[in-house]
Amino acid sequence: MKKLFLLVMVAFVAFAVNAQSDSKGAVMDFSEKSKDFGDITQGDKVEHTFVFTNSGDAPLVISNVAVSCGCTAPNWPKEPIAPGATGELKVVFNSAGKMGRQNSVVRVYSNASEPIEKVSLISNVLPKGK
């Protein structure tokens, strides 16, 4: 009887693991991961909207978005993104007080199969003309 019980349990666990592997969960696919603005003038504000698709089979929930400095401000959807739907992450970079090459990294935390995604705004900040 113990062997039969053990065999049934092993079969159940194998079935459960197989069922989970068929499900992808939420998957966040960005159409682009960086935006290079080239040369900008100190004090300029530049913005870009990163578009992503939930190519998984479960709702995508963004729990937090973190930036590398206070010069970058993100805006992201607070509602779940349905499978197959798209969402937008708007990012604004303020070059005030910055000089030279800048790479503002934005980390997106979610319930996706890859829980942390990164996108970035790149620019070269030139001094203001006199």
TrEMBL record:
<dbReference type="Pfam" id="PF07610">
    <property type="entry name" value="DUF1573"/>
</dbReference>
<feature type="signal peptide">
    <location>
        <begin position="1"/>
        <end position="19"/>
    </location>
</feature>
<dbReference type="InterPro" id="IPR011467">
    <property type="entry name" value="DUF1573"/>
</dbReference>
<keyword id="KW-0732">Signal</keyword>
<protein>
    <submittedName>
        <fullName>DUF1573 domain-containing protein</fullName>
    </submittedName>
</protein>
